[in-house]
Specification:
By secondary structure, the protein is mostly helical. The chain has helices at about 1-25, 30-45, 50-55, 55-60, 65-80, 85-110. It comes from Lacrimispora saccharolytica (strain ATCC 35040 / DSM 2544 / NRCC 2533 / WM1).
């Protein structure tokens, strides 16, 4: 049942983003920023964590989850390092995910030898 719930929640998030892309003139980069900021704001308001616990990977994998991760890192680091934590916390919290994406992207490029479009 958890898989079904995650699939449905992730699908609804993606469908809402697709509707936003189809019905507005917002560019995909701006929509991505909007999702990250929305995840951060929902995390700051205390709404995102209970939602993520209920929805599982359907809520934590999309960019909303990345925004929430950044917020949690900043909040924790502000408590430990004060004002400097605003700048340091997001990097610390998301370093593993970003490093993994870079490493696996590089390994994928070695294995599959991508070519430029003609």
């Amino acid at each position: 049942m958890d898989y079904l719930k995650a699939f449905i929640v992730g699908g609804v998030i993606c469908a809402l983003v697709q509707i936003l892309m189809d019905n507005t003139k917002l560019m995909p980069g701006r929509i991505m920023v909007l999702l990250v900021v929305t995840g951060s704001i929902l995390g700051a308001l205390g709404i995102y964590q209970p939602f993520a616990e209920w929805a599982g990977a359907g809520a934590t994998v999309p960019l909303l989850g990345f925004g929430n991760t950044l917020w949690k890192g900043v909040w924790k680091s502000m408590g430990e390092d004060g004002f400097l934590g605003i700048f340091k916390g997001g990097f610390t919290a998301s370093a593993v995910g970003i490093s993994g994406a870079l490493i696996f992207g590089y390994l994928g490029s070695i294995l599959f030898k991508p070519k430029m479009k003609s």
